[in-house]
Amino acid sequence: MIRATEAExxxxxxxxxxxxxxxxxxxxxxxxxxxxxxxxxxIGLEVEEDDAGAAIGGDTGNLLARIPGPAGAPSILLxxxxxxVGHGDTPIEPVVVDEGWENANHAILxxxxxxxxxxxxxxxxxxxxxxxxxxxxxxxxxxxxEALAGAKELDATKLRSTYGYVFDHATPIGEIITASxxxxxxxxxxxxxxxxxxxxxxxxxxxxxxxxxxxxxxxxGRLDHETTANVGTIExxxxxxxxxxxxxxxxxxxRSLDARKAERTVAEMIDRIQDAANDPVCDVDVDVDVxxxxxxxxxxxxxxxxxxxxxxxRRAGYTPSHVATGGGSDxxxxxxxxxxxTNLANGTERAHEPTERVAVAALEGMLEVTLALIEEAADDxxx
Length: 383
Hints:
Radius of gyration: 23 Å
Strand content: 25-35%
Shape: elongated
Structural class: alpha+beta
Number of strands: 20
Number of domains: 2
CATH class of the largest domain: Alpha Beta
Helix content: 25-40%
């Protein structure tokens, strides 16, 4: 197989550290996008940017660049997202500790998903300078951390590839994600009656009590091997203690690899929320807004892109395995749009946590895997 040179390994590490140091929380990816565009233009590629940024209330659209292959050769898509979860005012200062990249400060590193961005840019330079046996499309999306917002705005009919790969699962290299969940979000707001907590508490109806009762009655956590539910945010009250609160709001979610289970879980959550509101102890009004944020998928193990990925992983020295995940990725959005796409684990660790890291060996390993994907895609096309 074509191996990355020592210079390419050094470059992917340097580029990764540089990208991580550029803040790019969801919907504010402009600076990172500009650096990616500059890198692509430096190797002679044109970059298209759509209007997804305006559609999602952000400052950056989907970026798409193409590297042509030989006449008659197929094309494959490589995809990563530009945004990270927020990290407040804490800067990201990438450092190598115990042969792995970490943030010197107590915040995320941004390996989710800049490890993939750096690898894709390194592969693009390799393909332009050394040639490629297949065409390559490079897609960089904004707003992935907010329910795949950017990818859902992409016009997938513009893609010319046969299939694609997303590199966005924080588990060991070798895992091929063949199933991902359907995901619902619930926004729940209770409306009670305000009253002085010390003089006329009996005249009040506490929205916080109703929310607490509802949350206590919800089935949360892992409900079965395919289904989870969670309450992630709660807020309400006037900011003091001397008023019976008339407003309380919480955000919840339900996910399942079985779409029907996801729908049933949401219906059960709504029933328990309304039961709490109607309980005589609470007696409040409640509004529940439900949104399906993305659809799940299941991919048969014999799909062309999975077969190619298996061979590429073996070629690069990894053992492939098929796994289901409770998380989503841009692959969900692309699959929903009718474009075949598989998510591959990229060897990052503890995404979204202050202890997030990626081993140097994993970063360089994904460079090797991606080069192998290109070779195997070409071999798959040859008679």
